Amino acid sequence: MPYQSDLAGPTSRFFTSQRLRLHYVEWGPQDAPPLVLVHGGRDHCRNWDWVATDLAKDYRIVAPDLRGHGDSAWLIGGGYRMTDYVYDLAQLFFHLNLQHAPIIGHSLGGAITLQFAGAFPDMVERLIAIEGLGLSPERLERDSKVSTQEKMQKWISDTRSAAGRTPKRYASIEEAAARMHEANSHLSQEQAWHLTVHGVNQNEDGTYSWKFDNYVRINRPFGLTPEETRDFWREIKCPVLLIRGKESWASDPLKDGRAAYFKNARVENFERAGHWVHHDRLDAFLPMARDFLSGK
Question: N or C: which end of the chain has fewer CB within 10 A?
Fold first, then answer.
């Protein structure tokens, strides 16, 4: 059944990056200090609604839809590369003339913001990365044993498979919301409904499909090495808060050593939370985020 939401909706806007029309939303007064929120893979900017509704009391919130996600344009081709995501974030900063701003990023969005902060350390005031460090060192070590030839073969196979895959169609929003709740059992029914309403488009035949491009699922065979990624982490000047849910697949950056690559990083592990800590433990996340952003 539908759920009513008391969350006030943001204002939609667009900007251009590498000839793509990309969407972003804004909450809060235009003259307030800016705060940028970057969502994760196969997600959308409205996943921040609960966080933004609270923080917009004190900040001008800007939240983009990543390319291939939400209401942003899809690529012609299927190569969603990390470098292009970082470019899009830089272009958003330039578009809005943001000289110095704090950022919160989740998952893929966290990885993007960490690389951006390493590339432009003077542009990021403070940074909260919710499970944005990617694969654990143990997994990276295992993957490093896969040959270059095998990586290329798998990427071509996965891309051909995606080309023949039609988007999943749901008979109703309720059915799609049930799938959303199945993917994250920590969500309330109301949360799952809200995220689904903003995460689907209605097809011509009346069914519903997720907004994201299926090609964003494909793992890129080549890109920055783990050492090059750590080089970005080393260059970040601002304070960094690394957040992890204890019931997530992500490993603890204190225990696996990744926190040591940052000049000024603090790690917080949340009980009773999975990968989406800002949904699963909003009650604990918001006060911690507020304190960190204000310098406490």
Answer: N
Tell me 216's DSSP state: G
Q: Is residue 76 part of a domain?
A: yes
Task: Please state the domain count of the chain.
Answer: 1
Question: In the numeric block, which tokens belong to residue 287?
Answer: 């006060």
Question: Which letter does DSSP use for residue 170 in this model?
Answer: B
- H helix intervals, the chain: 49-55, 82-96, 108-119, 137-143, 148-163, 173-183, 189-197, 226-235, 277-280, 282-293
d(CA 38, CA 106): 6
Question: Which 8-state DSSP code applies to residue 240?
Answer: E
Find all residues with CB under 8 Å of 119, minimum gap 6, and list them.
Answer: 86, 90, 232, 235
86-131 pLDDT, tens digit per residue, is 999 999 999 999 999 999 999 999 999 999 999 999 999 999 999 9
Note the pLDDT tens digit of each residue in 162-211: 999 899 999 999 999 999 999 999 999 999 999 999 999 999 999 999 99
- State the CATH number of the domain containing residue 73: 3.40.50.1820
